[in-house]
Design brief:
With about 260 residues, the chain is an alpha/beta fold. Helix content is about 30%, strand content about 20%. Helix 4 links the parallel strand 6 and strand 7 (about 115-120). It is globular and about 55 Å long. The two termini are about 20 Å apart.
């Protein structure tokens, strides 16, 4: 089984590629969280079935929804399963491997193997995503990294096989998490007059943080969210903004997903 979380599609694509080649089932972390609420999440692993986690790196660590999911997760298995993670990142994996190991250990699980793949960086709240031609080149290289991970997973190899380890500029332990918590506010999100009330942003939000208001435009009903940028990126009219900087920036959704 592959547990996955994705905002703009990079991690979803990576999970799909792994699932297609390993014949594993995909389980949406956001979907499971919506169904479970605060209840425990129980999944049964068949004998010999690997357990994968695929998600993006946020501020050098884990998205909040991944942390919450693991806290509620119970894997039922006759034996200790082969647990691996493949993270997608704009440059490097930061502290995500240590954060994940700690989160799993708190649930009496241990990480067997760790992989990463560089994908187009697209945190439009702060910077401009790459233009199409550059993004395509990055995705081509990412395919190779995912395929390398597949080979190790098929052999059930163990260890940290991170092709993109933390750089010298990586956030120090704990700092990235604090910055992420500060940044993930919703008060700067808005929809301009080009909004056509299609509801794509509502459907895409993993937090259920958006509703359509009486005027037909999206309204952010929670103070904080994942800051996955799904709402901004999926809008067909580029109507959603974060502050006053995003109007002139490109949008990005992984082109290989539906």
């Amino acid at each position: 089984m592959i547990f996955w979380f994705s905002g703009t599609g990079n991690s979803r694509y990576a999970a799909q590629k792994l699932a297609e080649d390993t014949n594993d089932r995909m389980i949406s972390i956001a979907g499971e969280m919506k169904l479970a609420g605060s209840d425990p999440i129980r999944e049964e692993a068949a004998e010999g079935e690997p357990v994968g986690f695929v998600f993006p790196v946020y501020y050098g660590g884990l998205p909040l929804i991944v942390r919450k999911f693991i806290k509620q997760l119970e894997i039922v298995s006759k034996e200790q399963p082969y647990i691996y993670a493949l993270v997608t990142c704009g440059s490097d994996s930061g502290k995500s491997v240590s954060h994940l190991r700690k989160a799993l250990a708190e649930r009496d699980m241990s990480l067997t193997a760790f992989y990463s793949a560089v994908m187009p960086a697209n945190y439009v709240a702060i910077y401009d995503p790459p233009e199409k031609s550059k993004a395509e080149k990055i995705l081509t290289k990412a395919d190779v990294m995912i395929e390398n991970a597949e080979k190790h997973i098929a052999r059930r190899d163990a260890g940290n096989m991170d092709e993109n380890p933390a750089s010298l500029l990586a956030f120090p332990e704990g700092l990235g998490r604090r910055l992420y918590n500060i940044m993930r506010v919703t008060k700067k999100f808005s929809a301009d007059d080009s909004c056509v009330s299609c509801g794509a942003c509502v459907r895409a939000c993993p937090d259920g943080a958006i509703k359509i208001g009486d005027n037909g435009k999206p309204v952010w009903v929670k103070n904080k969210c994942e800051h996955c940028m799904a709402c901004i990126s999926i809008c067909p009219e580029r109507a959603i903004q974060f502050g006053d900087k995003t109007a002139g920036r490109r949008r990005y959704m992984n082109p290989n997903i539906d």
